[in-house]
Specification:
The complex is a heterodimer of chains A (about 750) and B (about 150).
Chain A (H helix, E strand, L loop, with lengths): L4 H6 L6 H11 L24 E3 L2 E3 L5 E5 L8 H13 L6 E5 L4 H4 L14 H28 L6 E4 L2 E4 L4 E3 H9 L27 H4 L17 E6 L7 E6 L1 H4 L4 E7 L3 E6 L2 H8 L3 E5 L8 H11 L6 E5 L2 H7 L2 E9 L11 E7 L2 E6 L4 H12 L6 E5 L15 H13 L5 E4 L2 H6 L7 E9 L5 E10 L9 H4 E2 L2 E2 H4 L11 E7 L15 H18 L4 H10 L5 H21 L5 E2 L2 E10 L2 E11 L5 E11 L6 H20 L5 E2 L2 E2 L17 E6 L17 H13 L15
Parallel strand pairs in A: 3-4, 8-18, 16-17, 20-23, 27-30
Antiparallel strand pairs in A: 1-2, 2-3, 5-6, 6-7, 8-11, 9-12, 10-11, 13-23, 14-19, 15-16, 15-18, 19-20, 21-22, 24-25, 25-26, 26-27, 28-29
Chain B lengths: L1 E5 L2 E5 L7 H8 L18 E4 L2 E4 L12 E3 L7 H12 L9 H14 L5 H8 L9 H16 L1
Parallel strand pairs in B: 1-5
Antiparallel strand pairs in B: 1-2, 3-4, 3-5
Helix pairs in contact in B: 2-3, 2-5, 3-4
């Protein structure tokens, strides 16, 4: 998802008041927003009490260590990951560790990769690795200093292990006994971190802290669980075509439903039903009669868009990569292979639909929900409500999935609810619930796309040229992030995975067309990589086949040769590492294995390298069943290897659903899919057996939440290529009798 | 007004009889462990037991559950439930966890009926419960583990 990466690690984003107002004014559809608002980083108290050791660690007198997670945990496990880092340096016991979400406070809790408080781009562990270990080491040093003073012994004679502070004299204590005294001490300026050989949790085992609550249905866990006194539930009817406006509506039947409090037009957004609980709101919403004005709305159908995209793919476009002379290379090639790929819009379809609750009291507002980008959300809510940003408090809850959906640059969900609250005007909590249909139809999809590739081989079967055209809506243009992510008409998120494709190919040209479509698009688990990874890796197999080479041997050959670029050569060493490992795990002997077919793929995303082998069988009706997936991952130091495995397993299943079944299509601009009956998810009987190995590494930790997803599509595609001789180039496979 | 027996307790709730059981649990009784996922019985997040059988509470009218024993994630108990919840924790099954109340109730009902399920039994019993985090590998492993602990 949100993919700011190295560029932003050097150049932190500093949002301005103006940028929020600009975004929100657009998103609020003409709502007048006060222009007098001061923008300043929030200085909300981080629960700074006697027991706060740093903004990240709280130790109470009963010995419980609470780690304040500056990120949103939407399933990827960063709450436990960050607690692991603290526990490691604190020498705490697993059982005394707890995780809690930090408040919205950009100064203390910014993502060091973005300069804003937010979660994405598989950065949670990478940007916190030193910060949270230091927090643990700092708290430990303070506890030890307090114990040394109380016991009258030198600091150096004290040891800490498994949550106990001890001295050779036999004195021993838990953390709780010194928590208060230690918190009053001066925070040491410097602390020494453990050397990796002394780690007891990092790279070993640290079971997830959130799992026990998630097996008993614990209250107040998710955004959907929020209940406040006197709370209203809002359900919003959005237009069927993106950009349409309410012409008129008839609400008398809806208002007659018991429990309904009011029905209000929300300019620029639709019509909202407010009720005392959820069911009356849903029931009443179905009784609304709304006439929409589709003037200026997006009313094209998917087929028309695909036709336009395919035409664009035939024309020159802005260049994002230009190595060597591609025209000459393809002209002189012994063989040229060519393919045009087509990808649909995809909804994120997380299990918990979008949901959030607000309570506006005078010039203050509190929000409760899974906030994925606190800084943007806080600024946006403040702008819509006309209150100072520091008066907006966010209490983050666990997210029932996200895959990128719970943050958008325009914070549309925040604008919707803040606007409803402003129009309602009474100081009363309001919870905005998206039904599944709302969630599926609301847009913010992975963009649809068309890729056209021509690849040339010499007489020895070596790649000599690669011409790659991408047609895809820009995620970043027109947003706060444009200045960082879009250069000379190239949105980096559209081309990632092709721009840095690292096979040794002497001539390589990449071009990007970014058509304007009125469908809101968004980062979707691994952003550009589900498309670019699919295309590059499927084309590699098509080229290998033309060269009569084994797909694994063909990849090795083009990864072992110097690529002419030092960064790519470095990537290739690690790509070969995972490729060789996965081949060994699967016992790779070629793409045909008895009556089964196999495909292999390797891809780098978010600085993590993943190779996968998919094995498929053919059913009597000609469709394919994915039986097995083997996966090797190199994510640098794996803080929590079992969680990395879980993310690979889940990332494979998530990617597989998209490749096999999922698509959002439009008819005259109206979304055709509404619920899980038409937007088909993967079910347990369709999940392959998955085997994952995490490579040992001393490199800095990199992402785990997203990188498991990109390789599964091309691995399956390549297995089908082995069976049919044709690359499946139009997704999802179920539309073509393949799944 | 509906009269329901939930987790062994008799409750009287002032709602329209056509209110889905899901919303009675969540909004009227603040028992939010039962989740809203799709509202059309396509995902299983709202699974509860009615007289021991797993049903989708989003498509069960409250009045239809009168006179039956309703068990939710907050009250599920017994040998199979304990084994399932323990296996879920041992294998760190949940990721986002939102679907897991429903998964656990479906798995518990399966094991109560079929103490030693095959992979096919698991497919049959669990394919109505969607997990978008795709924790299916671990759900399957945890059901097998729970079956072993129940045996032992």
């Amino acid at each position: 998802m949100l993919h700011m990466m190295q560029r932003l690690q050097q150049q932190a984003i500093r949002p301005t008041r103006r940028s929020f107002l600009k975004m929100s004014a657009v998103a609020a559809g003409g709502l007048v927003i006060g222009s007098h608002l001061p923008f300043s980083p929030a200085r909300a108290a981080a629960g700074a009490g006697d027991d706060m050791f740093t903004p990240f660690v709280r130790i109470s007198t009963d010995g419980i260590v609470t780690v304040l997670n500056k990120h949103l945990d939407m399933g990827q496990g960063n709450a436990t990951g960050l607690a692991t880092l603290v526990a490691e340096e604190l020498d705490a016991a697993h059982g005394q560790m707890r995780a809690e979400f930090a408040p919205a406070d950009v100064e203390r809790y910014k993502n060091l990769a973005f300069g804003m408080q937010g979660t994405g781009g598989s950065t949670a562990i990478a940007n916190s690795f030193e910060q949270y270990r230091k927090a643990g080491a700092t708290a430990r040093a303070m506890l030890v200093a307090a114990a040394a003073e109380a016991w009258g012994v030198p600091v150096a004679e004290i040891t800490v292990s498994g949550g106990r502070i001890s001295h050779a004299s036999g004195k021993s204590a838990g953390f709780g006994e010194f928590a208060e005294a230690a918190a009053k001490l001066e925070v040491p300026a410097e602390v020494t971190l453990k050397s990796p050989d002394r780690w007891v949790y990092i790279g070993k085992s640290f079971p997830r802290l959130d799992v026990p609550n998630k097996t008993v249905g614990a209250p107040r866990t998710y955004g959907m669980d929020v209940q406040r006194d006197n709370m209203l539930v809002a359900v919003l009817t959005r237009p069927l075509a993106f950009g349409a406006k309410v012409k008129s509506f008839e609400a008398s039947a809806a208002k007659a439903v018991k429990g309904v409090v009011d029905v209000i037009e929300v300019p620029g957004h639709g019509v909202a039903v407010l009720a005392t609980s959820t069911w009356p709101a849903i029931k009443a919403r179905d009784l609304l009669e709304i006439e929409w004005d589709e003037t200026g709305a997006e009313t094209r159908s998917s087929d028309a868009l695909y036709a336009e995209y395919r035409e664009m793919a035939e024309a020159d476009g802005p260049v994002f990569r230009d190595d060597g002379d591609v025209a000459a290379a393809l002209e002189g090639a012994a063989t040229v292979v060519e393919e045009t790929f087509q990808f649909p819009y995809l909804a994120h379809g997380m299990m918990e639909p979008m949901v959030l609750t607000i309570h506006v009291e005078g010039d203050r507002a509190t929000l409760w929900y899974p906030s994925q980008f606190q800084t943007v959300d806080q600024g946006t809510a403040a702008a819509v409500l006309g209150i100072p940003q520091e008066n907006v408090t966010i209490e983050t809850l666990y997210g029932g999935g996200s895959f990128g959906r719970r943050t958008s640059p325009d914070a549309r969900h925040i604008v919707e609810l803040a606007t409803i609250a402003r129009l309602w005007g009474k100081s009363q909590p309001i919870k905005l619930v998206y039904t599944r249909e709302d969630d599926t139809r609301a847009g913010y999809y992975r963009p649809m796309g068309v890729h056209k590739v021509r690849a040339g081989l010499d007489a020895d079967g070596n790649l000599v040229g690669w011409h790659h055209r991408i047609v895809q809506q820009s995620l970043m243009t027109g947003t706060l992030f444009e200045q960082y992510m879009v250069h000379d008409g190239i949105d980096e998120t559209s081309v990632e995975g092709v721009k840095d494709a690292s096979y040794a190919i002497p001539a390589f040209k990449g071009e990007l067309h970014s058509p304007k479509v009125g469908v809101p698009v968004l980062w979707w688990r691994s952003v550009g990589h589900t498309q670019t990874g699919y295309v590059v890796e499927a084309m590699i197999d098509k080229a290998a086949r033309a060269a009569s080479a084994d797909p694994l041997a063909f990849r090795r050959r083009h990864l072992e040769k110097p690529s002419g670029d030092a960064a790519r050569d470095k990537d290739n060493v690690r790509k070969l590492g995972v490729l060789n490992k996965v081949a060994e795990m699967a016992g790779w002997s070629g793409p045909v294995n008895g009556d089964r077919f196999r495909g292999i793929a390797v891809h780098k995303s978010f600085n993590t390298y993943v190779a996968e082998v998919a094995e498929v069988s053919r059913r009597d009706d000609g469709t394919f069943k994915v039986e097995n997936v083997w996966c090797a991952v190199d994510c640098g130091i794996a803080v929590n290897p079992d969680n990395v495995k879980a993310q690979m397993e889940g990332g494979i299943g998530y990617g597989l659903a998209a490749v096999l079944f999922s698509e959002i299509t439009l008819t005259d601009g109206h979304v055709d899919q509404l619920n899980f009956d038409t937007y088909r998810p993967l079910r347990i009987d369709e999940m392959p057996r998955v085997e994952v190995e995490v490579l040992a590494s001393a490199e800095a930790p990199s992402g785990a939440g997203e990188p498991g997803t990109p390789p599964v599509g091309p691995a399956v595609a390549n297995a089908i290529l082995a069976a049919t001789g044709e690359v499946p180039a139009t997704l999802p496979l179920t539309n073509h009798g393949l799944a | 007004m509906v009269r329901l027996n939930i987790n062994g307790e008799d409750r009287e709730i002032d709602v329209d009889p056509d209110t889905p059981l899901l919303w009675v649990l969540r909004d009227e009784l603040q028992m939010t462990g039962t989740k809203f996922g799709c509202g059309i019985a396509a995902c299983g997040a709202c699974t509860v037991h009615l007289d021991g059988t797993p049903v989708r509470s989003c498509q069960t009218m409250a009045s239809d559950a009168e006179g039956m024993s309703i068990v939710t994630i907050e009250g599920v108990d017994g040998k199979a439930a304990k084994a399932v919840q323990a296996a879920w924790r041992d294998l760190d099954v949940p990721q986002c966890g939102y679907c897991q109340s429903g998964q656990i109730l479906a798995a518990t009902a399966l094991l109560a009926e079929t103490p030693k399920p095959s992979d096919e039994d698991i497919d049959m019993a669990m394919s109505g419960n969607v997990c978008r985090c795709a924790t299916y590998t671990r759900i399957r492993a945890a059901i097998h583990r729970a079956a072993e602990t129940m045996e032992g």
